[in-house]
Please model this.
Amino acid sequence: MMELIHRLPDASGSGDPASAHTDAEPLDTLTLPLELRIRGRLRATTDGGREVGLFLDRGPVLRDGDRLASREGEVIRIRAADEPVVTAHIAAGRPMAALCYHLGNRHVQLAIGMQTPDAGASERKDEGKGETQSATGWVRFPPDHVLEELAERLGATLTHHEAPFDPEPGAYAQAGQGHAHSHGHTHAHDHEHSHGHSHNYAHEHTHEH
Model:
């Protein structure tokens, strides 16, 4: 089993500066949902079928594109798995700020992005309205009917689908904070993806606070 023990620096410079493998090309990818990317200890199977174990110090949640290295210099790239999410589309500016505020006030993890009009859209008018098209934002969160009703009341249009969920860092940026306790049993998760391969995640059921 390949033991992944280093977080390689990303473009922002975060990661393990002591690692000597910062320029190594990844030899495989490991696709994980958010619930497993928050963990520092994990056994899993890469997309190419390699058995790996994560033995990482406490640090940020693993994000899509992060790279991990073994002591021998083998590098694996992390990919965020598609998982059920709700994406709320809403006008940029105050409407989006209000949506983020009210959802965040319920301590839910959010991924946030902007969708700008294509080239020349600012000069086009909405048909029959005479209004200039403007940028819209989107806010993504796990399915929850209470949050969905709230988002709709605030003017958002919802899409239920499967997509990578990479929430904003912040209170959730540090994995493994506080104490941990284990129930002493394991779970295996089989995730089948449309791109033709499956992932088998076996991990100890440990709760971290």
In short: The radius of gyration is 20 Å. The domain at 82-115+135-164 is CATH 3.30.70.790 (Alpha-Beta Plaits). The chain is about 10% helix and 40% strand. The longest helix spans residues 94-104.
